[in-house]
Amino acid sequence: HARSEVHIVYMGEKQHHDPQHVTNMHHDMLSSILESKEEAKKSMVYSYRHGFSGFAAKLTESQVEKIAGLPGVIRVIPNQLHSVQ
Amino acid sequence: TTRSWDYLGLSPQSSSKSNLLHDANLGDGVIIGLLDTGIWPESVILNDEGLGPIPQRWKGSCQSGERFNATQDCNRKLIGAKYYIDGFLAENRQPFNTTQAPDFKSPRDSFGHGTHTSTIAAGSFVPNASYKGIALGLLRGGAPKARIAMYKVCWNVPRGQCSSADILKAFDDAIHDGVDVLSVSLGTDLPLFPQIDERDGIGPGSFHAVTKGITVVCAGGNEGPSSHTIDNTSPWILTVAASTVDRSFPTGIVLGNNFTILGQAMFRGKEVGFTGLVYPENPGLRPTLFGVCESLTLNNTPVAGNVVLCFTTMNNRAPVSAAVTSVKQAGGVGVIIAKHPGDVIGPCSNDFPCIEVDYELGSQILFYMRSTRSPIVKLSPSKTLAGRPVSTKVAHFSSRGPSSISPAILKPDIAAPGVSTLAASSPFDPFMDGGFALHSGTSMAAPHVSGIVALLKAIHPSWSPAAIKSALMTTAWKTDPFGEPVFAEGSPQKLANPFDYGAGIVNPNKAAKPGLVYDMGTDDYIMYLCAVGYNDSSITQLVGKSKTCPSPKPSILDVNVPSITIPSIRNSVTLTRTVTNVGPVNSVYKAQIDSPQGIHVAVRPDILAFNSSVKDLSFIVEVSTSHKVNTGYYFGSLTWTDETHYVTIPISVRTQIIQFYTDFN
To answer: What ipTM score was computed for the predicted complex, to two decimals?
Structure first.
């Protein structure tokens, strides 16, 4: 199995006001790549749906390439650590 | 904060007519969100006495978890508390281990950092607070009546780590919840990533917050004093450098010849009466440096019962810790560390005396030792010295500009106190005493500015984040409160310039009435994104509206920030700025230019007349260089004044006859 890492799928300003609708759209998008809703739910870490749109999910490199090409995706960003200053 | 707010002119007892603290009713009604390590809700400084009901517009909540009961632990001061760990856990791929470093799967703070930053910004009043008697005074936040919402995103692992997936979720929730200000004392390692696909999550998260009217205040980072180390460089962020206040902790070192030297320490143990003073000298001609603090060699030195002098060229805390460990193990009773200015002082464990002196005074101590057969020394507990003659400096650790990824956007924006700040902490903080700890970092500087932003929001609720940022920058102090110049710590120490402290030291009372502001909105940020090369489709997606960048591409020099930074000029350049009158309606402002050395600056028009129908006016700045070689940066300023307001922005210009050229010769 290819190793999956947390990635942020960043989609910019949200296109719908209903947060649940935004999350459903994220699940649908992820399902289209992972080929099942169950897998999509397991993979999803967060749905960003209030201030902007996007989600964090555990993805393999090939899944990252596929999802980066979907309409509405600005960029797929690897998760990164920060520290307090 | 027992000194910093007085230093900044925000004393609650001040009878001054222009006290922002009073005008803003202590920040009542404003909500400050913090992305940090959580909060210790029992801290006395989080009491909600005198606070009215929670603002009705607040949509956030408190989340229960390990040792955190939302109903009991939140109050009218702490109105929001959530935690975000899923991104961190998914990254670590192992169960959360709290055995080595305690933490709680809840908003409760173990590290102490989040409690410290949040109480700097908005803690309630606590009289007679101190750390073991030093820094005694009235502890409080900048906006003592503002409400706190803690978004715990960082966890108690070395350096307090936080994942960008968690940070972005906290931004997402904070925007939903209705915070007015976001205080983010976090940073990432260098080199930086581009701002919109920045892997830290702060760039995009803050963009969406700012375009919704939330001011985002970030720490500039602790990677100084090298240039190009500044972090959180997006133009929509308010990036904060750390400076000292007029307070120090002198600690007496009396030599056997009765000569007294004042070092710096946080030593609150008992006085060490006259006892032997030793320095591990090199035996013979061997090159080994026995007296170097970080690698003390004490085999040939009678340390037991004595005080040890050592020298180091390192400027972080590591040599202090190493020397204390070695000297303690060998039975010594104290250590004097001679070092270059560097990381700030801190207490040593179990009140062991560890006193820092500069190289010059360290050498004097060594000369005394070499001039007498049995050198002795007496060490006194540290005292608190506040006010004159203690000077203001930009901290050694504070990250410096220019921005490595957008050098035409000045960073940091501003400086604020961030050295030896007393605030609340967690009982798990090893440097906490009686609920309070003295900590240093740009982490401590940022919430000082966040507290001030809360006060400004209270009196100017309609001002945009850019207007607030402009007000803070154009009114900042270029000197300390006594009118003396501000130095920047480093080797060598030098006068501070805009890459050390941005527009200067934050001056809250003046920021309340700036006269003019350099305002910006989403369209201005789009222009910036076009200028730095983002494509139309990314920008359209980012802002949720169809946007096409103009052709030719706009100049980054025209982005309406309250500063002019020209990283590369060969002959001349022209740029524009627009100012908005937020003062008296019929105001007339005249330009005053302080040109950088060898640079000619002209402003057209040089008089701006506002009236009831003219609130915004644009002007052109023509800049030309007379330098014939590649230079470093020279600094100047442009001030618009109506003789009541002085609206000053820094100018930084570098001549590059050969461009894109590295010159190491």
So the answer is: 0.97
